[in-house]
Amino acid sequence: MVKFLLILLLPYCLHAQDYADKLKQFVQGQHDYFRFNGNVLVAKNGKVVYKDALGYADFNTGRLLDDNTVFELASVTKQFTAMAIMILKDRGALQLDDKVQKYLPSIPYDNITIRQLLSHTSGLPEYEAQFEKNWDQNKIAFNKDVITMLQQRKDSLLFKPGSKWQYSNTGYAMLASIIEKVSGMTYNDFLAKEVFKPLGMTHTYVYNTRRSTGKIPPNYALGFLYSDSLKRYILPDSLPRARMVYYLDGIVGDGTVNSTTGDLLVWDRALASGKLISPASINEMLSPITQVSPRDTTGFYGYGLFILTKPNGKVITHTGGWPGYTTFLERRTGKDETVIILSNNETTTGQFRAGIESILDGENILMPYKHTAVVIDPALLDKYEGKYNAFLTLTFIKKDNKLYRYREGTPDIELKPESNTKFFYGDGTDRQIEFETDTSGKVTRAWFINTGQRGEMKRLE
Asked: Which domains does the chain have, with CATH numbers?
């Protein structure tokens, strides 16, 4: 019997190893050649098939990442805020159709419900813009200051509550304040007691006090930005464009949960199995409640999570971004596959995630490699100029005997030749353009290769 089970399991083990080898090659290549710095975990049916920690937790000291390094999750936090609300709802402490003013009577809007905060349909103005213009940026703002700002300014709602969808960090800051009002606990303590501890998420906590207390938890990934002028990674604190990391440091609910890839897998399994709240509540939280865009009939938002309706099952996902951090958590329910990406140098997660998904789907992708520029005859560039289209339109122009990607309103990006027909983006991203020509040298089509995925482009002019 044991021998029979081993024979049955052998194909799965070989398949999982094949995944692991390809994922390692892909992720390691993104680190080696395209600046990815962070932690990645991929699981199937809740079992880890690949995980790794690549790069520095602190670029200044050279401290390395490991599997238990903790990252700021940014907006991946919103699902935890939504869960806290659903816990309180199941206990009868609040109702989703309650007016927000019932709990926060000083806000000047009497027609917004908790449900609309959860689903980003409240129409509340964004607090970030208000604080950028109207706040003493030498002071740290907290949730009470967001409420006071709304009360004092009385800015008009962006639309009638419930009539549209628009992503709102203000709404999730309000939800955190409601959690505190109803529970009598801080947002931090409520999540610790009711979510993290029951699930055994031992490396997860709310942390938003680095600027106010100067304390940094052990094994913490500090978020860094790349300075083109200094040619190195620096903390965002000294950059005027990232000043918000200081003066918005005290606001919770829309961000500030910090965690590891391992703990996020624990969380993912809790969502999949319906722990913490009733079956009806978890089903509602993970339902496609509000369509995000009228042009996309597959993209919805539930409570704290994007819900993508695909032919082979829902995709439950959320991204996060904050100066120095980009984060991503996804479960493809049809195959029960989980992808977690946590970066502390702002690596773009979209195409990175797509490459991982392609590997899981058994698709062939171009693995990352080191690109080396060669010298070619500038006259060759003349035939490559023009507009090309696939899912987007790209324009290539010749300037100073070099080829550039042109897009109105953005800086031109040099396309450096690695052969007579293949070019790589000079901005350090994993993107290439490959032209195909006929025997006369005329361009017949081009290929856009983005993070290993190859798409045909037709010439427009």
From this structure: 71-360 (3.40.710.10), 378-459 (2.40.128)
- Give the pLDDT of residue 2: 52
Residue 193: what pLDDT? Answer: 98
pLDDT of residue 15: 58
SS3 content of the chain, % helix, strand, coil (to 5): 35, 25, 40
For residue 3, the model assigns a pLDDT of 53
pLDDT for res 240: 87
Using DSSP, state whether 231 is helix, strand or coil.
Answer: coil
Question: Which residues does 8 contact at the CB level (< 8 Å), separation at least 6?
Answer: none
Does the annotation mark 75 as catalytic? yes
Question: Is the CB of residue 74 less than 8 Å from the CB of residue 325?
Answer: yes
Question: Residue 19 is which amino acid?
Answer: Y
β-strand partners of 456: 447
Burial 158-193 (b: 16+ CB within 10 A, else e): eeebbeebeebbbbbbbbbbbbbebbeeebbebbbe
> Torsion over CA of 27, 32, 34 and 35, rounded to 10 degrees?
100
* Strand 413-417 versus strand 422-425 pairing type: antiparallel
User: 């109207």: which residue's tokens?
Assistant: 134
Q: Tell me, what's the pLDDT at 32?
A: 96
What is the rounded CA–CA span in Å between residue 104 and residue 174?
Answer: 8
Distant-in-sequence, close-in-space partners of 345: CB < 8 Å, separation ≥ 6: 35, 36, 37, 38, 55, 59, 223, 224, 225, 226, 233, 324
Which is the catalytic residue, given 75, 119, 168, 343? Answer: 75
- Which stretches of the chain score pLDDT less than 50? 4-14
The alpha-helical segments, DSSP class H, found in 154-306 are 169-183, 187-191, 197-199, 210-213, 244-247, 261-273, 279-285
Q: What is the pLDDT of residue 106?
A: 96
pLDDT at 291: 96
